[in-house]
Amino acid sequence: MVLDLSGRIDVNSAQLVEVVGQCIRDGYVDILCNFEEVEFIDYMGISVVVIAYKEVANSQGRMKFTTIPAHLRGIFSVSGLDRVIEIYATEDMALNSFKEDKVIENIKKMQLRRRFKRLPIDIKIELKSKSEKSPACLKLDILNLSAVGAYIYGCDKFKLGDAVVLKLKLPPRGEEIELDGKVVWLSDKQVQHQIHPGMAVEFYNIKNPVQQKLIEFIDRNLTFSPTDPD
Length: 230
Prior knowledge:
single chain; 230 residues
């Protein structure tokens, strides 16, 4: 989302925070602020910008700036904001940097996945949306489990990007684990008909003790399963 700012940014600019909050609620967590038409910004305005930036960061998004007029660069430097937020000379350069970030992030995710073993398994789980008014699927099957994600079979009610909550019990003790996840891939009925309907869910905000339990469970059971070549 590109926000073209104009006029003054000062103590009366709370609308900037409101607009950024609405962008996040609408699913736009990567935000570029264009300052080309901004005439004035003071230290109270810097505080407003910092609040907006924190809103984005707390939503796992990115906020960047572009086209800072020469007469405003001093306050960005003195406040230290130019050392926290990436600033680009042109809008095209800033937009390309978002694309580069995505490529790097995908590479890191792939490297992270490869650090963790995957276990073919059949465990019954419950899957619910984090939104109260959205769907839920009970008695689904996990077909593939790692410490960073799972492939889930038996539900076609979710879409890409949906935030979900998984509940499963690890055998043999039946210890219940609850995990936050995000749908990152959906099966194609024409191509993957054997495992359709299904979805890949990536875990996030997973606590270290919970992840360690998953790792120990997978390592313990992999001795009885074929080795994953990846």
